[in-house]
Amino acid sequence: MNIFRFFGDISHLASIFILIHKIHTSRSCRGISFKTQVLYVAVFVTRYLDLLYSWVSLYNFVMKVFFIASSCYILYLMKVRFRPTNDPSIDTFRVEYLVGPCAVLALIFNYGYAVTEVLWSFSIFLESVAILPQLFMLQRTGEAETITTHYLAALGAYRTLYIPNWIYRYFSEGYVDPIAVTAGLVQTGLYLDFFYVYFTKVLQGQKFELPA
Amino acid sequence: DSDFSAHDEL
């Protein structure tokens, strides 16, 4: 554990709390892509299967359980509790174009032909693109509530902080995970456009609006 | 687990 990874994880936790807070206070999940949230459940469940057979640390265990539970809770909020505020007609990204290629990549690039290893790789690849339906929705509507942009910024910060974490681990442990690093770079890259608008508009007190 | 995989990360 190093400070980059720790603050990355804290940022990830924060993003989830921000999202739940947004849904509760506005009593609405408007502007949130259900598809992206479903993908996150798939990411967490396939990656954290090792909860069943390996122990890393209490920290690791608690975080994994929290990520699975909170992501399922968000689906409940969107599909049951605040269902009328969820508008599937603007959430139109074709998820099969993400899941299919990620499954193929996981079969090619993994650390061993065991079901759990392939699913681990799959979850890493899928996480890197899981935000796309959300970003696509943002692009379509052209604007977002400020709180939603804070959610996305915290989520983007999480993977951005994992990059210095990997650099740190490379020098301190001689360790590098090519699958995680490649997918992580892609994932962070997807946020660059968003970050640009976030820093130049939202943090200057303006509304998040994309140029027409 | 491979020594070179981030299985200890979240």
Structural overview:
Chain A: The chain crosses the membrane at residues 52-76, 97-113, 179-199. The complex is a heterodimer of chains A (212) and B (10). Chain A has 212 residues and is mostly helical. Helices cover 71% and strands 2% of the residues of chain A. The radius of gyration of chain A is 17 Å and the shape is globular. With 10 residues, chain B is low in regular secondary structure. Chain B has no helix or strand. The N and C termini of chain B lie far apart (15 Å). Classes of the chains: A mainly alpha (212), B little secondary structure (10).
If helices are DSSP runs of H or I spanning 4 or more residues, what is the number of helices of chain B?
0
For the report, how would you describe the main beta sheet of chain A?
2 strands, antiparallel
Strand count of chain B = 0
- First and last CA, distance of chain B: 15 Å
Any low-confidence stretches of chain B, pLDDT <50, length ≥5? none
How many helices of chain A? 9
Instruction: Extract low-pLDDT stretches of chain A.
Output: none
Average residue pLDDT of chain A: 96
| SSE series of chain A | HHHHHHEHHHE
Task: Assign an overall shape of chain B.
Answer: elongated
Number of strands of chain A: 2
Helix content of chain B: under 10%
Spatial strand arrangement across the major sheet of chain A: 1-2
Shape of chain A: globular
Largest interface, with counts of residues having CB < 8 Å to the other chain, equals:
A-B, 22 and 10 residues
Strand content of chain A: under 5%
Class per helix and strand makeup of chain A: mainly alpha
InterPro entries (chain A): ER_ret_rcpt
Keywords (chain A): Endoplasmic reticulum, ER-Golgi transport, Membrane, Protein transport, Receptor, Transmembrane, Transmembrane helix, Transport
Protein name (chain A): ER lumen protein-retaining receptor
Family (chain A): Belongs to the ERD2 family.
